[in-house]
Structures are given as structure tokens and as C-alpha cells.
Amino acid sequence: MTSAPISRPDRLAILLLQIGAVAIVLVAVPFKAFDLDRYFVPKELVLHLCAAATALLLVVRRTRLAFSVTDQFLAAFLAASLLSSLMATNLWLASRAVAISLSGAALFWVTSALRRDGLATSLVAALAVGVVVGAATSLLQAYGVRTEYFSLNRAPGGTFGNRNFVAHLCAIGAPVVVLAALTARRGLHSALGGLGLAIVIAALVLSRSRAAWLALIAFIVPVGALAYLTRAQWYQPRTGRRLFELATFVVVGAAAAVALPNRLEWKSDSPYLDSAAGLVNYREGSGRGRLVQYSNSLDMVRAHPILGVGPGNWAVAYPKYASRNDPSMSQDDGVTSNPWPSSDWVAILAERGVVGFALLFVTMFALLARALRELRTATSDPERALTALALVGTLVATAVVGAFDAVLLLAVPTFFVWTLAGALSPPVQGRAFVERGVKRLIPAGVLALGIFTVGHSAFQLAAMGAVNASTRTATLENAVLLDPGSYRIRLRLAQAYVNRGNCAGAREQARAARSLMPNAAEPRRVLSMCGSR
């Protein structure tokens, strides 16, 4: 019996996702004045392009849409996020955050459809390659490669700009790298998968990211236990040999990371032991800072329990709830050190309220339940069982990393988590169906959202490029037109006006900046220089 030929739209969608899996980890721009945004914005652009293009390719051929229980919970989470946006002080940040969630959901639905059609195998391999390539950029920086696309702060972050971000991807992506190596059709491809796993493990060790280390430990324990309990469903002599080979690669990767001299300037003589010893230290350092931040963020939740303060608006609202000498605040200028809290789950709870948090939690739990159900039923298909185990590992790693850092708030983890969730999830029957208007309205809606999300990121990138090329007032004015929601650019333009003695212009831009960040001190300082409040 021959399988049905792959349609051209499906083939193109798979190709776009394969390219996107590598492009999103590599893309960055050398606009150093914009700190982490020079990594975030281009990666968001790739995320939105892949989501919009692949969703449009698949939806234009549909006459009916079927929604499983998981799909319904995810759609409800998106609806709650949109409703929560109405509560936001800064609508520009809210739209940016919701756009990331929308694109992540679109990728989940696209890859779920590809999995139902039996087309996800090559995509899974490409996602594993993307994880390894991201880890490799971290190793390149650690061992001496210097480029304007790497950041010296938080090395070795590679093309992520921050060692924690690349470590998050390594922890979340490790299960799919293992899966790709175990299920490879050829021994050479399995060996390449083992080498890729060694690169991922080495990057994890060198990152010293405690959240990623905890995630690795957290998913190894339950997945290992599940694998042992279900070994009759997936174990074969070839799989056993490959597991031994992978274990060898893990040991080699970790040992090489510790033993080989690198260019990282750690302040400690035993940096890796210090990080290991501080895995659960909440009495001092960043651990204590997280507890203070979580406690103050919960005050925010109590004040806005249902819908939160709006997606992406944690940094806007947090200064009102910050305690004295709060480590999350940037000195006395009324802004936070980071634009997100040190936890996905705290961010979702504070920004999208109890409703949004509960819906996302139930969505993740439904995916986990599907994986566990697949493990019980995949008695005659080892690859199905291994795929279910990889999904469990991915979800557990995402949950643990998200408990200690921003993950689903950012483009790269969003791309990999939701694409993997769709590609690894076992197909299920739809419980709800939509037929009316599908042929005309749904493609138009997808196109409109794609134009909005892609356009938003593209204009942000263009504004950053304009400011990077020149600091003249006329250039800053054009940049504000391209990205009206940029607090940084509006404040810079206000200061340029002050220097030129143009207080009318300075007041306009300072007030616009203050409306974006009401608790920030700098706009007030600019206004006071022009005799205004």
C-alpha cells in the first residue's frame, strides 16, 4: 500500500518550518544600542512569518475546521489574552505579547495538522537541528569567537544575547534531540544526533543556568521512570545500543565543557560547582531576588485578579508594587531591570489574570494527558511510544524552566515549544466543528493577523535600524513614526529636543514616553527641564 503524495502546500509548509527552526536561533542584528531587543525583535519577525505563512498555506484548502478539547482550551486562552489586553496601560507592549501567543498557537495547529497527516517526521529532525545550532553558537562564543552579533554581557549567549536563553532552549530541546537520534533510520544519522546531544549538554554546562539544570534533572526523573515502566513498548536491541551511545556522548560533552579551556571570565575558581551548590538557594543572590519579586507580583495579582494588568505589562505595573531596595528595580529610575518577571507562570498570572493562567495550565495538562494515553496504547509501535516520552520531557522541561525564567514570553522558546507540542502530540478526534465561513473568512482572518504581527515586528526592526544608523533628530522623528510604542526612542527624541532648546517637542515626546511607562523617572526629569510636570 503506497502513501498518498504530499501536497504542494504541505510540502512548502514543512520547508518553511524547517528553515524557520534554524533561522530563528541564528537571526540577530548588530544594533547594540538596543540591548536584548536586537535579538528579540528579529526572532519575533521569524516567528510571525513562519506562523502566518504556514497557517495560510494549510487553512486555504480547508472547508471545515475540527477542534479537540486541547484546541478549545488554547483558543480560550488566546481569547482571554485579547480581553486582558483591554486592561493594559501600554497597548503596544500588550499587542507584542499577544502576537507571540497567537503565533505560537498557530504553529501548534499547523504542526498538529501535519502530524495527523503523517508528515511530522522530517520536521522533528529539523527542530532537533535547530536546537543543536543554537547550542553551537553558545559554544563558539565560549571558545573565543568574537562577532558583533554576540553580546559580551551574559556570555556565552551566542546569537541569543544571554546565556540563560540559550540554556532554556537546550533544556527544552534535549528530548527531541534524543528522539531524533533514537528513531533515525540510519546509524550515521543516529551518531550525528549523539554528537548534537553532546553539543547541547556542553552548552548547558557552560551556561551555568540553574533553571536549565533544574529542568534537565526534572524531566530526566519522570521520563526515565515512564521509560522504564513502558520499556516493553519501545525497547529494541538497536534502541538499547543507541541509548548507550547517547549516554557516552552526554558524558563526553559534559566532561569536555568542564575540562577544555574557554574564554569565559568567571569570577569563581569553581564556577560549575558553585552553580550546582546554589541550585535551590533562596536565601541570597538571585534566588532571594526571585522570592521578593514573586511576592510583590502576587500583590499585583490580588489587585487585578481576573484579567491581570495586561499582556506584556508586568514591567509597566511592577514599580507600583516594588518594595524598598527591590533587586528587580533598576536603581531609582522607576523601571524594572528586565521587561519580564523571572517566571513565565508569575508573568501569565500577573498579566493575564487567574483566567488566562488557568486556561494555559489546562492546555498544557491536556497535552500531557494525551502523551500519557499514547504511552498506554502504543503497544506495537516503538516510535510512537518514544515520541510520547519526548513530549512528556518537553512539557516538563518547559514547565520547570518557566517557573524560574521567561520562556513562553519570548519568540524562540515559543516557536520550539508549540511546534514540538503539535509535532509530537498524538492525533485526536475533533470534538467541535466549524464549517460556516471557513472557506472565506478564516483565510482572510489569518492573513490580517499575519500582516499585523509581521508588520509590527518589521516596523520595530526598521526603527531600530534607523536609530542605529544616525542619532540626528530627523532620524529619531522618523523612527518614532515607524515604532510609536518604543519608550526608548521617544525618550531619546525628547532628550534631543531638549538639547536643541525645543521644549514643545520635548514635552510632547516625554509625555508620550510617560504614558508608556507611567512610573519611569526619566520622562519626568525631561519635563521638569522644560518647566512642565
Tell me the fraction of residues in β-strands, as a range: under 5%
Outline, from the CA principal axes? globular
Q: Number of helical segments? A: 21
Order of helices and strands: HHEHHHHHHHHHHHHHHEHHHHH
Q: Would you count the extended β strands for me?
A: 2
- The structure class reads mainly alpha
Give the averaged pLDDT, no decimals.
91
- The low-pLDDT segments are none
Characterize the largest beta sheet: strand count, sense, and whether it forms a barrel: 2 strands, antiparallel
Distance between the termini: 77 Å
Q: Could you estimate the helical fraction of the residues in percent?
A: 55-70%
> Numbering strands along the chain, what is their spatial order in the largest sheet?
1-2
Count of distinct structural domains: 2
Query: What value does the Rg take, in angstroms?
Result: 24 Å
Characteristic terms for this protein:
533 residues; mainly alpha; Serine Threonine Protein Phosphatase 5, Tetratricopeptide repeat; 2 domains; two-stranded antiparallel ribbon; globular
Write the layout of secondary structure elements.
Elements: H1 8-26, H2 37-59, E1 65-67, H3 69-85, H4 91-116, H5 121-142, H6 163-182, H7 187-207, H8 210-229, H9 231-234, H10 237-259, H11 271-277, H12 285-303, H13 314-317, H14 344-377, H15 382-404, H16 411-424, E2 432-434, H17 441-469, H18 473-482, H19 487-499, H20 503-516, H21 521-529
Antiparallel strand pairs: 1-2
